[in-house]
Design goal:
The protein is of the alpha+beta class. The protein folds into 2 domains: 70 residues, no CATH class; 111 residues, 2-Layer Sandwich (Bacterial polysaccharide co-polymerase-like), CATH 3.30.1890. The protein has 9 helices and 4 strands; from the N terminus they run ααβαααββαβααα. A 4-stranded antiparallel beta sheet has the order 2-3-1-4. Strand 2 and strand 3 form a beta hairpin. The two termini are 65 Å apart. Keywords: Cell membrane, Membrane, Transmembrane, Transmembrane helix. Its main location: membrane. This is Capsular biosynthesis protein. It is a multi-pass membrane protein.
């Protein structure tokens, strides 16, 4: 006989194990909060922007072809910014105890679609160091691109600034705890159904019918003991004394 589970059975299982489900969800949130606040290292981010222009003389007007050329150069510049030729000089200028390969993982270079503005973002456990790396990378790139490509078309549009009370970009404790709540809820529901599936005790007449695979003909209602005595007294006549 194929086993089927109704929505009512699901609801009964969830209601029966609601304490377990809530406990798993709360436990997951607590663990995520403790790890986020006390074990994960805060990471700060600083960003600077550079503008890519064509080399120009005074009062020269840009046309659409010049802008398209700049946009094509940006993809090349994005690679050059994170190259050892630039990052090794950044490490030397700031006297950093790292390598160009390790520093590359901290730097993100991006630009909006059809935009001549390039964003250089740096993430580091120390906010002031992220600002220094971002600004130094922009300055070094501005100087070195003149030697590498013989062009002078890079201007620093917006340098990174050290905030008075910077906020870390990660970890995000609230987001982590929200995700943990969902995971804990799913885990609690899964454990609840697993325990219900492993519980083979007979609870009602439906369980008997499923196990024996026989239809139930009738049910015997429970009879209280004091009523049994009254029924027997009424049924059995009293004997007359001789």
């Amino acid at each position: 006989m194929e086993e089927t589970i109704s929505l009512q059975d699901l609801y009964k299982t969830l209601r029966k194990r609601i304490g377990l489900i809530i406990s798993m969800m709360v436990l997951a949130v607590i663990i995520a909060g403790v790890i986020s606040y006390f074990f994960l290292t805060p990471i700060y981010q600083a960003s600077t922007q550079i503008l890519v222009n064509q080399q120009k003389i005074e009062q020269q007007q840009f046309n659409s072809q010049d802008i398209q050329t700049n946009l094509q150069l940006i993809n090349t510049y994005n690679v050059i910014i994170k190259s050892p030729a630039i990052l090794s000089k950044v490490i030397e200028n700031l006297d950093l105890d790292t390598t160009p390969a390790a520093l590359t993982n901290k730097i993100t270079v991006s630009n909006a679609q059809n935009s001549q503005v390039v964003n250089i973002s740096v993430q580091d456990p120390e906010s002031y160091k992220a600002v220094d790396i971002a600004n130094t990378t922009a300055h070094v790139f501005q100087e070195e691109i003149q030697k590498l490509m013989k062009v002078d078309n890079v201007n620093i549009l917006s340098p990174a600034v050290q905030m008075e009370n910077p906020s870390p970009v990660k970890p995000d404790p609230v987001l982590n705890m929200a995700i943990a709540a969902v995971v804990g809820l799913m885990l609690g529901v899964g454990i609840a159904f697993l325990l219900e599936h492993l519980d083979t005790t007979i609870k009602n007449e439906q369980d008997i019918e499923d196990i024996l695979q026989l239809p139930i003909l009738g049910l015997i209602s429970p009879i209280q003991e004091n009523k049994n005595v009254d029924i027997v007294t009424k049924i059995m006549p009293r004997r007359k004394r001789v």
